[in-house]
Design goal:
Strand content: 5-15%
Distance between the termini: 89 Å
Pfam family, one: Plavaka
Number of strands: 30
Signal peptide: 1-22
Largest sheet: 11 strands, antiparallel
Protein name: GLOBIN domain-containing protein
Biased composition (Pro residues): 81-93
Radius of gyration: 37 Å
Region (Disordered): 54-121, 745-773, 848-896, 1155-1243
Structural class: alpha+beta
Length: 1243
């Protein structure tokens, strides 16, 4: 032992005298230290060791995802991302040669004084006070290239064909490749990209897109075979058509393996039997993203998120520009705090706080100096759909959209903005046989449900490939369509699905104790929706935490290794309190990178509101009517049949029996909700009538806020108040009306239950006899997830934008393409054939774009024969609304549009003579000439006709005394969300209009609008003579409306506080002081309005006797006593009554000045709880022509060319209008002028 010790000491002594380089020192230790400080070998070893140590520490500190590949994908497939973060330099060596310790990282060196740090960027407000705030100066803004045609929402507006982007081929092939010639390529594109119906539109497309093209040659169609051309297209590589990475590749086929649990079968999960589910058709997530960013659609993608803000008090005529101080306080997104009085605007994904947060959270270390870092905002939809009316053929597609694109484009099926991502397979029946053979028992319902969840997340585990996760963490370099390389980070924002699929993806139990996929509210507490305690409970949200994942892993270990039941007592004790299920969620692979998959399951307005909460309430109201008096149900059906339609398809004709609800769609329930208040009025006794009407008004208000496409901070605040009120009214209805009436299921519900029971009995013993089924007791149940989700909508709008951006309606519309493709299959293995059709369509769109087709649409002007009236009154009424009067599409810049036809006319002097007893015609000629003279003299419209002398009226000469009649008037207007839309006024079907009111200033009960029914649409050629005339020679074409005025019922309380609609009624024609009839300039019309008869108050004959003014109802000479103004008919109409509409801000100025010229609104007050009262203080409507000075507004004489119907004789007023419509250089107003005035100016 002693000898070993001495040997060790000698060895250490020798080592102390010897360096690693072999140099030996005979001197002291100081000599050896002096040598080591100069030894290059030792210095190199220390540097290598320090670098290796620091690299190891960095690797341990950095998150290491399990499935991330060691190396980036090859450049042939996907460009490698930017290099990893640099390894920090080794710490400096001490005098001894050893690296010094680094406890804390040293502070970065101070920046030079002349260095400008990147900071937020704010644009100047436009004429509506809208401005953008970017986290940093943007490199591109697609809104700068927006045109007037992009803002048009109505199909009746005349818009030019959108210019196709430059699609110059990047490969040396013909544009029609792989086809042999352009003729075949165009024919195949017409076949695959069109509809399956042989419609007139399809025939027109065949002629325009194929037969009339310059490169069409009938010789190219010899020996044509469609099957051969399809195979030619299928066998062609996408790179042969376009060498960019966006060229669509084929679909991939895969199978999913799932582990099978069994009771009392104890085995590790890795060793458990597994079943392979075949038939998964999918495209990699990255491939779809690359295709989207390299396609022409990228021109409209927003790559830099921003916050949209609105200054309601902004005056473009006197802009008070205030520069933000250098030390302004910034919010969590790095943006300056919202100034006092300003509001945040919510609408798009790329303007949402979640997008800003994700953008600011991108890894800065991965950003190279020459690459812009952007986000690809994934938005998913998935839902199973039936492909045929008969049989069980179904498809379960997954669709992918990108939130970088505006929702106004993304929501159009014609934009082809969605991508077919995958077709999910279902569990095959052979699994039951396999399970029985393996374990000797049948598959239980709990195990089957568990395997469904396992299959779904097995699919997503395959989609979330290592390549995708690598791109999620480090980004992926994509050369975008504009030729610029960017570092793109994929991020998941929304997943739209109905509730059964939502719980499948969220891995929670279907309607368990905590049914919500976003929070932990108990099912028994859902009825308290809207209360303060309910709002506090919602703050306890679900999160993908380590505790959650550990709990799931423990449950799975017990199921496989201990043989516990999937839904047994032991597993339920662990998972049931939070409604979890023992399925490993595939999205948890992204949890370590800060992604909480529970947050992407957004509410579903279609299924949760319209087909959920509202449908259940409407159904129970019918049960209440049935319990009170079955005759009330018949009255309800009759009232709905008499409700007029509105718009092209806004309010459709109701079914003959609304209460039966035979196969209604969501749009049918939406129409019912918007029109149901007058239909239910008076069907129940008090106080239940008041309770029901109040509940319906509150629900309709909540629904209207939920359908808005543009929200502000003010509207969201009011929406939250309405949500609280809705919950209170629902609970009041439950404890009063529902308690007083014992309700049973309706006959149709009883029949459905009997059919279900019969199907159940048929699957059981054959000797089972079907007993008669009696009516079951039914109540209104609000303890459902759909009712619970209502308060989540305002918060979701603030987080990711408005509801229509992620509604499942987009997925339902996308199903149409899959169903059309199914019709072209042979019905065997149709999933693969549908995938092939989808690929063909993508390739053909690219080929068609390369060939630059020119699509033109020509409206049909074919007149229809008018019916021949029999009586003289009917003949005159028929001339008031000629059936053959047709209009082409209207240019969006025009204020209104009337036909140029002179085919039908009435003699002005003959009308009073032919009907001397008609009260509507007693003062027809004097009123008409007074109206025309006021416009000829340039007097502003004040609501009352100016009184003139007989000589003044005689100086107004109507050429040949002819009043040319028209059937249709189209009125263009600017909506609350700054879109250009249109209403069609038809004297037979849609005759009701609204104009700005001209009430006395001291009238405390003033209402912002007047209402009228259009009796006739005319134009006349007028010459003004006499001393007051500006020109006694020229003729003036003048358009005017003959209207019958409504008066507002001032004794009826109407507003949000009263929870009632505004009520109007016809003025009595027997009282000359009321001026029941009058004339109106079409430029004064704000919009068409939807007036619903107040059925409860019945009809009357005292207001007007038999008259030609009632030509739309000639057989019944009666009028309804009252009408209700339906403010819920559409989004824009709703915002005209509640205020805070950005596009309506100029109504206050118009009301104050009494002119049509638009000026800035007065300072807008924030909307209070009573919406109708605030509309007088809020701004209002551009629909009065205020945005078109010199064309429709006060800048032009209204007697001139505002009709846009044209005539051979020019007028002095037409010249004036044209002159005032020009700028100082004499240039015509352009689309940019309109965009600036409409609030969509180039920022």
């Amino acid at each position: 032992m002693r000898l070993a010790t001495l040997s060790l000491i000698f060895l250490l002594f020798i080592m102390a005298k010897t360096c690693v380089c072999g140099h030996r020192t005979k001197g002291s230790r100081a000599a050896m230290a002096n040598h080591q400080n100069k030894c290059k070998v030792l210095l190199a070893r220390h540097e290598a060791a320090a670098a290796q140590s620091i690299a190891a520490q960095a690797a341990e500190a950095a998150p290491a995802p399990d499935p991330v590949p060691e190396e980036a994908p090859s450049a042939e497939d996907i460009r490698a991302p930017s290099p990893p973060p640099r390894i920090p330099s080794p710490p400096p060596l001490r005098r001894s040669g050893r690296p010094g310790r680094r406890i804390n990282d040293p502070e970065p060196p101070p920046e030079p004084e002349n260095t400008v740090r990147p900071r937020w960027f704010k644009t100047s407000p436009n004429s509506y006070g809208l401005y953008k705030v970017f986290p940093h100066p943007p490199t591109r803004d697609p809104d700068q290239s927006i045109s007037l045609d992009d803002l048009c929402a109505s199909s009746d507006l005349l818009v030019s064909q959108k210019n196709q982007p430059d699609a110059t081929p990047t490969v040396p092939t013909a544009p029609w490749f792989p086809f042999l010639n352009a003729t075949v390529a165009r024919l195949m594109a017409w076949f695959h990209l069109g509809t399956n119906l042989k419609s007139l539109a399809e025939l027109d497309a065949l002629v325009e897109d194929v037969l009339l093209q310059d490169d069409f040659d009938v010789a190219h169609l010899r020996n044509f075979r469609a099957a051969r051309e399809n195979k030619r297209l299928d066998d062609t590589l996408a790179s042969s058509i376009d060498e960019s990475a966006s060229a669509p590749d084929g679909w991939k086929t895969a199978s999913v393996k799932i582990k099978l649990p069994a009771p009392k079968h104890c085995v590790a999960e890795k060793e458990a039997p597994e079943f392979e589910v075949p038939g998964l058709m999918y495209r990699p997530l990255l491939e779809v993203m690359i295709e989207a960013f390299q396609s022409p659609m990228f021109e409209e993608y927003h790559t830099t998120p921003f916050e949209y803000r609105w200054d309601p008090a902004y005056d473009p005529g006197d802009p008070d520009v205030q520069l933000d101080p250098a030390d302004v306080t910034v919010d969590e997104h790095g943006l300056p705090e919202l100034p006092a009085g300003h509001q945040v605007v919510y609408g798009e994904i790329y303007t949402s706080p979640r997008m800003l947060k994700a953008h600011n959270g991108l890894p800065k270390a991965a950003t190279t100096p020459h690459l812009e870092t952007i986000i690809a905002a994934y938005m998913f939809w998935s839902d199973a759909t039936h492909l045929a009316n008969f049989g069980n053929a179904s498809l379960w597609p997954l669709y992918t959209f990108f939130g970088n694109l505006s929702k106004y484009t993304r929501a159009k099926p014609s934009a082809n903005a969605g991508f077919h991502q995958a077709y999910f397979p279902s569990l095959p029946d052979s699994l039951k046989d396999f399970y029985r053979q393996k374990f000797g028992v049948a598959v239980s319902a709990d195990v089957w449900a568990h395997l469904k969840r396992e299959l779904m997340h097995g699919i997503w585990d395959l989609l979330l490939s290592p390549e995708f996760i690598h791109a999620y963490v480090h980004g992926i370099v994509i050369k975008c369509y504009d030729g610029i390389e960017r570092l793109v980070f994929p991020r998941f924002f929304t997943y739209g699905a109905d509730y059964p699929e939502k719980v499948l993806l969220a891995t929670i139990k279907y309607f368990g104790g905590c049914p919500c996929p976003r929070c932990f509210v108990d099912k028994d507490q859902i009825s308290q929706m809207g209360t303060k305690v309910d709002m506090r409970r919602r703050q306890n949200i679900r999160e993908d935490t380590p505790w959650y994942r550990k709990t799931i892993e423990t449950a799975r270990r017990w199921i496989f290794e201990r043989g516990y039941l999937v839904a047994g007592a032991a597993i339920n004790r662990m998972l049931k309190p939070t409604s979890l299920v023992p399925t490993r969620n595939a999205f948890s692979k992204l949890a370590e990178y800060g992604f909480n998959f529970f947050s992407m399951f957004v509410p579903d307005f279609l299924h949760e509101v319209e087909l959920g909460g509202w449908k259940s309430l409407f159904l129970h109201l019918i049960r209440v009517l049935q319990a009170y008096n079955p005759v009330s149900v018949d009255k309800l059906n009759e009232r709905f049949r008499n409700i007029p339609t509105f718009g092209r398809s806004t309010i459709r004709r109701f079914h003959a029996n609304v209460s039966d609800m035979k196969k209604p769609a969501a749009r049918d329930f939406e129409d019912i909700l918007q029109c149901c208040i007058p239909a239910f009025e008076g069907l129940l006794p008090e106080p239940h009538n008041t309770i029901v009407l109040t509940l319906l008004y509150t629900f309709a208000t909540w629904h209207a806020y939920g359908k808005l496409r543009l929200h502000t901070t003010g509207t969201v605040s009011v929406w939250r108040i309405v949500t609280t009120e809705l919950g209170a009214q629902a609970r009041n209805f439950l404890k009063t009306t529902c308690e007083d009436y014992t309700t049973y299921e309706l006959p149709q519900e009883q029949n459905r239950r009997a059919r279900r029971q019969a199907r159940k009995n048929s699957k059981s013993a054959a000797n089972t006899t079907t007993a008669p089924i009696s009516k079951a007791r039914k109540t209104w149940n609000i303890n459902t997830y759909k009712w619970h989700s209502f308060p989540d909508y305002p918060d979701t709008v603030v987080d990711v934008g408005t509801t229509e951006s992620y509604s499942t309606v987009l997925g339902e519309l996308a199903h149409c393409a899959a169903k059309r493709s199914y019709a072209k299959t042979n019905k065997r293995n149709f999933e693969q054939q549908i995938a092939a059709h989808e690929r063909r369509k993508r390739l053909l769109r690219r080929i068609k774009q390369r060939m630059n087709p020119r699509v033109s649409s020509k409206p049909s002007n074919t007149p229809s024969l008018a019916p021949q009236p029999k009586e003289q009154r009917s003949k005159t009424a028929g001339n008031l609304a000629p059936a053959h009067d047709t209009l082409p599409r209207t240019p969006p810049r025009q204020r209104y549009h009337i036909s140029e036809s002179k085919r039908t006319w009435l003699h002005a002097l003959d009308l009073p003579d032919d009907f001397p007893d008609d009260q509507a015609l007693q003062t027809f000629i004097p009123d008409l000439k007074s109206h025309l003279l006021s416009r000829l003299l340039g007097l502003a419209y004040s609501g009352d006709e100016t009184q003139y002398s007989d000589q003044d009226l005689a100086n107004v000469n109507i050429l040949r005394e002819r009043l040319y009649t028209h059937k249709i008037l189209r009125v263009n207007y600017t909506s609350y969300d700054l879109r250009r839309d249109q209403d069609t006024i038809n004297t037979r079907s849609h005759p009701d209009i609204m104009v700005l009111a001209h009430e006395d200033d001291d009238d405390s009960t003033a209402h912002p609008y007047w209402y009228a029914r259009v009796v006739g649409i005319f134009h006349a050629e007028v010459r003004h003579v006499g001393p007051k005339s500006k020109n006694t020679v020229k003729l003036h074409r003048m358009d005017f409306l003959w209207v019958r005025w409504f008066g507002r019922d001032t004794n009826h309380r109407a507003s949000w506080l009263a929870k009632r609609l505004h009520r109007v009624g016809f003025l009595s024609a027997s009282d000359p002081d009321l001026s029941a009839f009058g004339f109106l300039d079409p430029a004064e019309v704000v919009r068409a309005t939807h007036l619903i008869p107040a059925f409860h108050y019945g009809r009357t004959t005292e207001l007007l006797g038999p008259s030609v003014a009632r030509h739309f109802d000639d057989e019944n000479h009666e009028d309804y006593e009252y009408y209700y103004v339906n403010q819920f008919v559409d989004r824009d109409m709703f915002m005209r009554y509640v205020g805070n509409g950005i596009g309506h801000r100029n109504i206050a100025a118009s009301l104050t000045e009494g002119t049509g010229e638009g000026t800035a609104a007065d300072e807008d007050d924030e909307m209070d709880v009573d919406p109708p009262d605030s509309v007088v203080q809020q701004g209002g409507d551009l629909g009065t022509g205020d945005e078109f000075e010199g064309e429709d507004g006060e800048g032009s004489d209204n007697s001139g060319s505002e009709s846009h119907s044209g005539s051979d004789e020019s007028s002095e007023e037409e010249e004036t209008s044209d002159e005032e419509g020009e700028d100082e250089n004499g240039a015509e107003p352009t689309d940019d002028d309109f965009l600036d005035s409409a609030g969509i100016a180039d920022f």
